[in-house]
Each structure stands twice: as C-alpha cells, then as structure tokens.
Specification:
By secondary structure, the chain is of the alpha/beta class. It is 47% helix and 12% strand. The protein has a seven-stranded parallel sheet with strand order 1-2-3-4-5-6-7. The mean pLDDT is 95.
Amino acid sequence: MARRVRRSGLTMPINTPRFVDRSWTRNCDFLNFDFEDSVPQSQKEYARTLVSHAIEQGLKGGAEITLRINCSYPEADIPAAALPGLSQINFPKAETAEQIRNMDRLITEAERRQGIRPGTIRIGTAIETTLGVANSYEIASASPRIDAFSGGTGYDMSMDMGVEMFVGFDQFVYNRGEGALVAMALGLEYHGSVYMPDTTGDVGNTELTRQRAEANRKAGLRSGSGLHPNTVEPQNIGLTPTPEEVQEAKRILEYFAQLDERSEVEGELDGRTVDKYEAARAAELLEWSELCAQKDAKKAKAQAQARELEAQGNVPS
C-alpha cells in the first residue's frame, strides 16, 4: 500500500452542515466524518444520507476522506459510507477479529455495487476496550484492508478501565505499548501518541498539540488527529521535518555512502556514530519530508481552485 500522509485530521459529526461545508478550508491532511458518538441516535439514519455531500466538500481542500461508523450497525453504515472518493472506514471499539472480517465482507460487497475498484477502501481499527486490547493482534491481522491501527487510549478506554481520563500520569501505558508493537509487527501505521501530561482536557490546546506532535515525530510516529481546528496547523508543522533536520539527514547519508565505498560498516560524524540503522532513519526522514511537501502542494492547489470557484459563484459554500 502507498504510504499516506496523515499528520492532521479532524473528526466531525457528518450531520452538522456548518462543520462539513467548511471542512475543506481547515487544511487537514484527512477528514474523518462521523456516524458514531457525535451523531444522536435519532439522526443515525439521516446521517447515512449525507456521505456523498461530505466527501465532495472534503475533497475540495485536497484532504483524504475517511468515515467512522458505529460498531453496532455495520450492515447499515458500511453500504451508506462506501462511496467513490472515500479512502477509509474506521471501526471504533473493535473487540474481535470477526468484527473486522465481517466489515471486510461488507466493504467488498459495497465496492462491487458502487463500481469501486476492489480493495480501494481501507480499514482503520480503534481499540477502546480492555477486551480489544487483549485481542489486538488478532484484530489487526484480520483483514488485508487494514493499514491503520490505534490502540487502547481515549475516553471510552478510560470508562471501560474505570480510570479518570485527564490525569498527570500515563494510565494507558500498557495499552499504548501493546498497540504500537502490534502495528509495528504487522507493518501497519500506528495512530497514537507518546504520553504527555494533560489534566485540562482542552481539545484545542495549540501549544500542547505542537509539543506532542514534535515528540511523536521524534519517536517515529507520523500521524495525528483532533477534534478542534486549532490542532491542525500545530500537527502539520510538528509532524513535518524541519529544514535543519533534512540537511542533517542528507549529511548522514552522504557520509554513510563514503563509508560504504571504503567497505566500512560504521563511522563517526561530528561525534555521532553513523551505521546502517542511522542511515535508514535518515533515508526515512527524507522520504517523509518529500511526501509532506507533496501533500502540502496538493492541498494548496485544491484549496486555491475551490476558493476561485467560490469567488466566481460556481460552487456553493
């Protein structure tokens, strides 16, 4: 699967027009429209009729489009969600591999009906219960469509564990480690974060978001998400390598190439040991930096075109 750039994303209720219609202006790498917690039970059926419009709005800004379904209603949600332009369907509170295999089957049927190339729509899984943590490996390996895995944190997890959500210690330390290792073992993108103290619950804290994004990138994580527009740019910036880091990565690779020419496996560059592992990290950083630049260019072009059309009155806002 091609590597995706998902530094920033917003999860929003699909039944709230003022969020959906301006979603393309937020400069997100991806948009996650929601059928689940943010949509009241009385509007679940109505929400399923809004997918085509939401996809159209989100794509105007160059974002990747994903959608979170209800774990209790996959037979109703997936056929409504699996439309052209959708990249991924996210399954919350995953607890068993059978849930994911059923989801795969439903997506396959929906792709066939919609004339979508088989295998186009991927699966994201979210572990939010203790049973899900216990079954993490089986869940994450249940379908070849899975390319994103998030494990064992968040409000629902805290409720299931019977612990407070916003505390000054990492109450999810085991869950985080389990999820990250499972994703790594299976070659999946892990959607998670290193722990940073947060006792406020402020989902729009710009500075904390920036600090967390930078820490995540240095820990090898590449994705972010949020509930408030204030978190978008801090994640775009914090999860993108700095120019100084790019230059240092190039120096490391140049030096390692010199070592290779001399048939040496390691050496010291300005007091830093350089070997094949450091070279691999440098190569990944350069690849990631280029992918981020490509994503930013794609979004800028799409948003400029959308604004021009709006100014001309050709596209409703």
